[in-house]
Structure formats: structure tokens, C-alpha cells
Amino acid sequence: MKLHWLNKRPKDSTGISWGIPWERGALKREDTICLQSSSGKKSPLQTWPMAFWPDGSVKWTGHAAVLQGDEEIYEVSLNEHVKSDSILQVRGNNHTIEIDTGKLLFSINKQGNRIINYVKRGTKTIAFDGKLNLIRETRRKEDGSTIIREDPFEGIITYVEIEQKGPLRAVIKIKGIHQEVSGTGTLLPFELRLYFYANTESVRTVHTLFYDGDPEKDFIKGVGLELSVPLTGEAWNRNVRFSGDEGIYSEAAQLLLTRRHRNVDGLFQKQIAGEIVSLKEEKHSQLLEHAKQNTIWNNFKLQQDSADHYRISKRTQESSAWVESTHGTRAKGLLYIGGEDHGISVGIRNFWQKFPSALEVSDLNKSEAKLKAWFWSPDAGAMDLRHYNNETHVVSAYEGFDEMRSSPFGIANTSEVYLHFYTDRPSNEELLSKIEELQAPLLLVCEPEYYHHSKASGVWSLVDRTTPMKAKLEEQLDKAFHFYKKEIEQRRWYGYWNYGDVMHTYDPVRHQWMYDIGGFAWQNTELVPNIWLWYSFLRSGREDVFIMAEAMTRHTSEVDCYHFGEYAGLGSRHNVVHWGCGCKEARISMAGLHKYYYFLTTDERVRDLLTEVKDADQALANLDPMREFYSTEQFPTHARVGPDWAAFCSNWLSEWERTENQTYKEKIMTGINTLKKLPFRLLSGPTFGYDPKTSDLLYMGDGNEGGYHMVIAFGGPQAWMEIAQVLGDSEWEDMLAEFGEFYVKSNEEKLARSNGILHNKLFSLPMLASGMVAYAAARKKDKNLAEKAWDLLLDEEISQMVLPIKEEEVQSWRRITEVPSITTNTTSQWCLNTIVSLELIGEYLPNQEFKKVLVQQESD
């Protein structure tokens, strides 16, 4: 099996982690794995299982290695093992955990407000007192004036765990909550993971902030990480550097530039280049005398206040004004500070994409400088997590329920920060290389053909342009992705709370998305664009697709979901505000939306999220998704076979395959076995009573409220097809095929097959069922059924997908490129079902242009 870099390769020895799928039966638990470069060099590899097949063989493995990046291609072979010369040491006591990478010694506290106790190189401390900072803003009205108060908080450790301890990679997980510095109040829990690799001088941190405040009172003004750095040397050799749009902006605490000495012997040029400057020679005595009279600048900061603007400024001390240095567009998010003997850089991933962010150093010319990475800059306005209105708009704006349930209580946001410690002053080129690695997904990946062959990630097709019609479909799939990639940039869908999501429906009159119309604004996983993007990556291996899918995973799994509180385990449906809709449902948070990222990257935060939703069905006991139509007098609560039970199946499959906990397999089988006994099997319902205690679907008749298009629009088919692959249950496979075939039967056939109960009006939006119809056609090897599936995708009147996709340029408040008919619902489902159908019934694809297909579905 071959691996290659997704795109960027590290220039220095760098620790990385990635995942590999395995075909059923191909890898036993006791097998060892070796990583070998194309030149024959074998590298030590740390390996662990992430998921299993039902027969006990390994389905996904996680790997860690420390690689130079001088090789493009690697091969993985079985039953070989290479021992590492450099072993990561992890040891702990009641108060601290120590991690010795071989180059640096890290001490992590188990309690208190200092997370990183110290970082040492040998016996010398090079950083200490790493902590988390938070600023809360409160507001009150008094005599017609608004009084604003800012209160500082700092992170207090409540729990520390050595999550992974291996020869090459160690992971420390820290939990805590922010405590008011001047009082006892607490606010906003956090989780912080620290990643260490053998023989490296870096640490990666993954920071998750949870919101548990009152949005009417608690406005968050700043969120960040701070580290103290002891520096030595003269003020003119204290250097600060920021990565700008393309290069490095460099300054010193005290400039060697005076009225009479502009660039003596090129010393000022060397200083600004970040080099150590010596002024011991006699010829430099006058320069030294004059330069010592120059101002000493102690504080520097770069603030990214929008996706299109940052400013760099500096000041001498806290009591003095900030002076603007320069402005730019999109900073790459790295700050370096250094003295005469060592330095440190900090970088925030997706720095400008998740504005308002900032990088800051204070006390540069003192014995202990402070370096701060702000995920939310204190110089920006405070977070405002209130709803956009004090009422709902159900009829006019598709907001779900009259009841107001707009609440950010329990949502989260995850950020990544990298720290790198230097013994010698790095060149600007080295810093640029480091930030390019940080901002790109530094990842080893398999070939699409291997992912496909393993059958470890569901049913999807490889890119295929072997016939004219397949080539046309691939062209449309590419155009759909490229449109959204460009639209994210054109519409500036960026920001701490927004980056990763896209909008729901377009308004061609305003040449604007319906950002302000209730349920037509943010998408919030509606009709599973996540799965479309992850399938698109698996089949193509493209970095730009991965970046978009990664951002959507980070956003939708954190911001759109509830991690504690009343709605724990559920997500919030699409709305003007991400957490604004009254519909809180499992379809938004289901594991199948996010697990691809975990398996491809080994990311432990997303693994936590998969575990978090394993029992999401328990939330239905307090919030019935069908409360608009049914009371809970007869049943504890209700669940539609889809999207509710389908989402539970996705969650249970994830938990079963990752942990081998048979309880979750049994939960899946409980529902399947119930459906097998019912009159119309999977077509029964679609709404059932539901008992969260037993996972039982409680039959309450057929053709009831719910709508069969809801059954298959939210990732249910993808979860069920994957379950079919795993279980090998032929009756379950027949039930999936039966559902797909039934969807495209005539009204008369539906009535005849269901004793007059089921009819066309219950089966709207047939394009959403095209993947299920394709599954039926493939299982039955039925050409006519396959043609019907393709009709659903290619007939514009049925699919509501205008093909071919054509972008138009219009002049509005500025020049806009648009697709007037676009909706993310339709695009996501059309692309997803096309990818599935190409796999299942690609051989039956008609060779025709994109035009109205003459075969019409029979009307009512």
C-alpha cells in the first residue's frame, strides 16, 4: 500500500499522525506495520487500532511518525517493525507530568492555573507559566449611559490525563474551567490537548472552548493562550517577527536607526533581518551611544480584525499609546520572539479565516517576555451570542417551531496552536516554511483506489471519465465543488463562529444568500453536505476538497451541536444564528458526518465527539422531535425511521466499530429486527413511538406524519448502506432495495402494494431517493430500475438541479458571480447521490446530453 503527502511536506523533522483503512480480514490485531520510503529507508512507526470489523480484524489504524519530508512516496508493509532510536519519555507524579522529547523537557501541571509549568532545554528554562486567558464583558444601563466592565478570567485545571503514551507520540488531555481572577465566579469550560513527538522541538495544542454563559449578560471579549519566555541580550537584539500576507515583518525592541546613523556597516539591515548584532567594535561606539537613546518598544501585536484586514502596532509601555506599524490583508498567523540565546514561535491555524484573532508579545525587553495567542482578540468587539430577534418566524421563514429555543448554552469551538522552540535564530525563510506547514494539512494519505477497495468508508465511486456521459457528470461534480469553494471566498463566509459553514438558499433578486430569512440562512449540515465533501475527497484525494471538508467538520461538529445541557447530543437546525432554530435533532450531530475526519487524521477531539453522540437518543426523552404532531401519552417519545433512528444507527455503528461494544450493535439490530416484522418493513411508519431505555421502535401505523423524503435526506442511506456492508444481512439489504424500488413506483402500484395506505403524496422530492433506487437496481440487476434512478438525477423537473451548472456575472453593489437557481440542499444531495449512483449503476448510465428526460414520473 502506498502513501503520499496530501500536498505540503515538512522540511525539518516533524511529527505527524494519520489513519489507514483495511479491508475486512486483511489486518490482524497482532500484525506489525512498517513504513518505508520509496528510496528504501525504513522509519519507526507508532500504530494503534481505531476501528474493527465484526470478525475482529482491524478496520482502521492510526499511525504516528517523525518524518523529514524529503520523500514523496511511502509504502506500508506488514509484519515488519523498526525500532526508534529516540524514545519519547512520559512520566508523572501527583502534581505534574513530564514529557521528554529527547530535545526538550516539558512539565505539565495537574492542578492550578498554570498548565505548562516549564519547558527546558537541558537544565535551562526556555518557557514557563503557560496558561489560558479569558475576558468577559458585562454591560448595564445607568442614567442613560452604557457602562461596560471587563473582567479577566484564567483557566483552572480540573482534570489531566495521559491519553496516549507511545515511543513516538504522546497526547496529554487537560480539562478545566475559567475562573474570575478577582473573584470566585467560573465561566466557559475548556479542553486542551498537547501533542508531543520524539526528537522534536514543537508542541501542537488543540483548544476547545465551551459556552455555558448567559448570552444576555456574558459577552466574551477575549480568549487566548499565554506563555512566559525568559529572554537575554541587549534591547537591539530582542527580535519580534510576524508572518504577513506573504513574507515576514521584523522589528526589534530598540532600533539601530538614528538621525545620524542610518545603516552603519549594514548593521541595521542585519538587525531587521533578525540577526544578532554585535556593537563591541570601537568604530561602532558612536552608533551605540546614539542608539541607546532610542525608544524601547516592549509591546507588539498583530490583530486580524476581518478576513481582509490586519494591523501591526507597537507601544513602549501599558501607559502609552499604541503606534500603528503597518496594515495588510491576510496574515498567515505566526509570531516569533527571540533574544540572544534562543527564541520561540507561535502559530494559530486558520488565523485569518477565524478572525478576530491576534498575536501579541509584551515586555519584550524585560527578563520575562509574555507571548499571547488570541483565538478571539480583545481588540475586537465582544462575542454577541444572542438571538437575532425575540420571536420566531415559522410560516414566513421556515423556522421549525413557534417555541423559542435559540440557545448557545453547550456549543463549542476548537482552535489549533503550534509552538516551536529555537536554539538559534531562524531565518525568515525558515519561519515562512514553518507557517506554511502549519496552515496546510500536513498529512499522509492513501490513493483513492485503496480507500475504495477497502470498503471501510461506505458506498461511493471513484472518479471515472471513461465515457462521454460519465465525463459530463464528473465535470458537473467538479463545478459544484468549485462553485462553493469560490463562494466561500466571494461571500466571505469566515469568522470564529462561521468558518466552515455555507448558506442554505440563494436570493437572485438581492444577489445575496438568504442570510436573514430564518431557516434559509446557514446550512448546519442540512442534507449532509459534509458527506458529499468527504466522499469527494476520498474519490479524488484533492487537498482543496480536504480543506473545505475539514473546516466544515470542525464547525458543524462543535458550533452546530450541543455538548452539555438540555440538548446534549443533539444539534441545531439551519437558521440565521447557528444555534437559533427550535429544532434540536440528532440528524445534525450524527457521527457519520464527522467520523471521516477522525479516521483520516486520528484527531482525538473528533473522536470525543463521536463518543459524545453514542447515546444521543436519550435526549428524545426530554425533547420529542415529533411534538408538533403527537403527544407522549401513549409512547415515551417519538422517532422517525429517518432522520432520527437513521442518525442513531450512524452513532451506534461508530461506537460499535471503534470500541467493539456489542451493546451498540444490539441497538442497531433491535430496530432492524422490529422493522423486519412490520407490514412494510423499512417503509413502515415513517414515525414510531420510541423508548430510549430499550432502543425500541414502537409501531403506530403506516403513512403517518413524517414524510418519506425525510427518511433518506439526512445521511440515512449512507449509514444504512455501510451497515449493510458490515452486517452482511441479506434481509436488511433486501429492505433497502425494497424502499428504493417502492419510491419510484406509480401511484397505482404504491396503493396496490400497500393495501391502499401508501401513495405518491407521501413520497415527495424523489431525487433524494435516487441513491436508494440505485441500490435497488444494483441488488436486483434491474436495468429499468437503474434508468429510473438516473432519471431522478438528470431530469431537471424531478431533481430541481439545473444542469449543466452555469455561473453568471452580474453587477450589483459589486461584481458578483452567481448561480441564480442554487440551493445547498439540492446541490449536496444531487452530488452525493450521483457519486453513489456512479458506483452502483454506472454501467446503466444513459449516453445523453443534460436535458429534460422524456420518461416522466407518473403523477397522482
TrEMBL record:
Give the protein name, as stated in the record.
Answer: Tat pathway signal sequence domain protein
- Please report a single Pfam family linked to this protein: PcRGLX_1st
PcRGLX/YetA-like central beta-sandwich domain mapped to chain residues: 89-432
Domain (PcRGLX/YetA-like C-terminal alpha/alpha toroid) spans 442-845
This chain's source organism reads Neobacillus bataviensis
Q: Which residues form the PcRGLX/YetA-like N-terminal RIFT barrel domain?
A: 1-70
